[in-house]
Amino acid sequence: MKHLLTLKDLTQAQILAIIDQAIAIKQDYAPVADALKGKSVVTLFEKPSLRTRVSFDIGINKLGGHAVYLDQQNGALGQRESVQDFAMNLSRWCDAIVARVFDHNTLIELREHATVPVVNSLCDLYHPCQALADFMTLKEHCGDLSQVKLGYVGDGNNVTHSLMFAAAKLGADMVVVCPPGHFPDGNMVVEAKAIAAEHGGTLVLSTDTAALEGCDALYADTWISMGDDTPISAIKAKFQPYQINSALMAQSGAKYVLHCQPAHREVEITSQVMDGPGSVILDQAENRMHAQNAVLLQLLTQ
Ligand code: CP
Ligand code: NVA
């Protein structure tokens, strides 16, 4: 593994190795406390962040490395200087670039011109670090990931795409339930279905929440992603049947609920479910750090 742009590029063995290492270091950081000693990682954000920014910064510190945070003080990436020059300059100082960008093509350009690993920390198409933390969390609570059935409910987006590819590679079953017109990208669905079939998993799409029956866990994300200025009032009625609430949890039979956060309480998820006994949402947030650290260890020390 040289970069992490999408989980599509990883094998099942590589994904499982990251999850297993993340679970191991979560128990004990002592063996890896100096693993990134003398190494620096630039974390670059074109969009806001709480979890990603903090979990990378503190996580890199736990591995003995140094994180350098870059925000948009100089304007959007590619404006003050080309993405190519940006990547080539950064590569002379740092050992890896973690980037949250508007356009996936910016990551492809960074990867092309950087001589150090590039990690996608969210773009318009994917959120691979999130999906790794999510399947780590499912492993902790449900065990064997090839036996897990995950139900994603809401807007088909970057998080959905990464969850679909993670589930497919791991041979898990996944159901994606969205309002009409809000499905994940059609080509990615075709691709993920083929990968799932290869690995003994399934991917089912529906507009009907009845399709969620038998899921071990339900997953919510915001109905409007960063960079989309659609007002909530324009879509709320259409999305309301897709809210994760106690009725939907009971109807599906799911024991657990996940949300990548930031969450909008009483919008895509109710507080009753978010703060309820089946919520593993804060485990997901914590696990972002461990999963990303496992990625950095694979990229920088293997
Ligand atoms: N889940 C997630 O990526 O959160 P932030 O946007 O706060 O980083
Ligand atoms: N789909 C959301 C995820 C936030 C972590 C977004 O892109 O805004």
From TrEMBL:
Aspartate/ornithine carbamoyltransferase carbamoyl-P binding domain: which residues? 2-140
InterPro entries, alphabetically?
Answer: Asp/Orn_carbamoyltranf_P-bd, Asp/Orn_carbamoylTrfase, Asp/Orn_carbamoylTrfase_sf, Asp_carbamoyltransf_Asp/Orn-bd, Orn/put_carbamltrans
Q: What is its EC number?
A: 2.1.3.3
User: Which SUPFAM superfamilies does the UniProt entry name for this protein?
Assistant: Aspartate/ornithine carbamoyltransferase
Keyword annotations for this protein, in alphabetical order, are: Transferase
Domain Aspartate/ornithine carbamoyltransferase Asp/Orn-binding intervals = 147-298
**Gene3D superfamilies the UniProt entry points to:** Aspartate/ornithine carbamoyltransferase
**Enzyme class name:** transferase
**What domain of life does the native source organism fall in?**
Bacteria
- NCBIfam families the record matches: orni_carb_tr, PRK00779.1, PRK14805.1
Protein name according to UniProt: Ornithine carbamoyltransferase
**Organismal lineage:** Bacteria, Pseudomonadati, Pseudomonadota, Gammaproteobacteria, Alteromonadales
